[in-house]
Write a structure and sequence with these properties.
The structure holds two protein chains of two kinds.
Chain A (H helix, E strand, L loop, with lengths): L1 H18 L3 H38 L2 H16 L8 H14 L3 H19 L6 H12 L6 H9 L9 H22 L8
Chain B lengths: L1 H22 L4 H9 L1 H26 L1 H15 L7 H6 L4 H15 L4 H11 L4 H11 L8 H23 L1
Classes of the chains: A mainly alpha, B mainly alpha.
Chain lengths: ~190, ~170
């Protein structure tokens, strides 16, 4: 899909540029954008490294486990089909906590582990209700600190690079709520039966 | 009030996490340096996709195609108070994370980091994930083929994220 979109963007640009007689601008844009990709990436390395360093401290000091403890009651409620002490619950909580802290690299292995546990309970090639709920939580991505975007805005010269964080949090909580309502109300629908 | 909270975010984290680490007997400096090493690798991983998207959007903008598209779609986007130039970001976000980052970067750069468009793009980028990628990777990892209602719920969450990021950006900025 992304292959077609990318090709579509370039084709449209070149064709429209030809029609508008702006091929000079288009070739300049190609060269300039490649250059600015380099400047932006180099500018981001600093903030990115700083953030990863701080998050390594958070991880080593057990902040993820602390967050996991806070999240546990809510997670248990969202997955009524899973026994409370099943390891799937633990893996899902760790995955969600890591995602909330923006620790993408730590989140993925926990997520895959969680899916494996859920599949042990499911044993089919059709998704279980719990899997759908878990993945919707994952795709809505409530992130307490969108570090990459803060870094990007900082490196491009924003006055207050974190000014969008609160609005972003409200917005992702709204998205999560909508996702959960839809996933829970469709799980019994005959259109999507197991 | 909101402004002062958001100004506090970065310094507070710089201070509180290392203090918490020290309380938990973590060798904060060494662990920090060790974690920071990964920064360059992460950027190297993102760079090719960032380049691909910056070039594609650059071509679209320079050719005038983006203006034509914006004029064409603005009657619809104006109704919900969304600047038409963030539409490409809304389309790419569920499909490609680094692609969306590329588009957001281009918007922030061309519109200025403190413009409404740039702030909205930041909110929108942060409020959803690459739905299709997440579903494909996780279901694929356990061999589940029928995704049932997860796709619709994921898309509903994406649409909610896009609309609510416009709503909250209007409210806050």
């Amino acid at each position: 899909m992304i292959n077609y979109i990318w090709l579509f963007m370039i084709t449209t640009g070149v064709v429209v540029g030809m029609i508008n007689g702006r091929m000079g601008e288009v070739s300049k844009a190609i060269i300039d954008s490649s250059e600015s990709a380099v400047t932006i990436s180099i500018g981001l390395i600093g903030v990115m490294s700083l953030w990863l360093g701080i998050m390594q401290i958070a991880e080593k000091s057990g902040l993820m486990d602390a967050l996991a403890k806070v999240l546990k009651p809510a997670i248990v409620k969202l997955f009524p089909e899973i026994p409370k002490d099943h390891p799937a619950i633990g893996a899902m909580i760790m995955n969600i906590s890591a995602n909330m802290l923006g620790l993408g690299n730590a989140a993925t292995p926990f997520g895959i582990k969680a899916m494996e546990y859920l599949q042990e309970l499911n044993k089919k090639d059709v998704a279980s209700n719990s899997m759908c709920t878990f993945l919707v939580i994952n795709t809505a991505s409530v992130q307490l600190l969108p570090a990459v975007m803060i870094g990007l805005r900082a490196s491009l010269g924003a006055k207050n690079p974190a000014d969008f964080v609160v609005a972003g949090l409200f917005s992702s909580i709204t998205a999560l709520t909508v996702g959960l309502i839809v996933v829970k109300s469709l799980e019994k629908s005959s259109l999507f039966k197991e | 009030m909101l402004k002062s909270i958001s100004e506090l975010i970065i310094p507070a984290i710089m201070l509180l996490i290392p203090i918490y680490g020290l309380i938990k007997h973590v060798k904060v400096y060494e662990v920090f340096v060790d974690g920071a090493k990964e920064g360059i690798n992460t950027m190297i991983k993102i760079f090719p996709a960032l380049l691909a998207m910056l070039v594609a959007v650059g071509v679209l903008r320079a050719s005038g195609a983006l203006d034509i598209f914006a004029n064409w779609i603005s009657p619809f986007t104006a109704k919900i108070g969304m600047p038409s130039d963030v539409v490409p970001l809304a389309i790419i976000r569920p499909l490609s994370g680094s692609g969306a980052l590329g588009i957001a970067t281009e918007l922030i750069k061309s519109r200025g980091p403190d413009s409404f468009t740039a702030k909205l793009a930041s909110v929108m980028y942060g409020s959803t994930e690459t739905t299709f990628y997440v579903l494909a990777v996780y279901f694929g990892s356990v061999g589940v083929k029928k995704m049932r209602h997860s796709i619709i719920a994921g898309i509903a969450a994406d649409i909610a994220a896009i609309l609510s990021s416009v709503f909250y950006s209007r409210l806050f900025f």
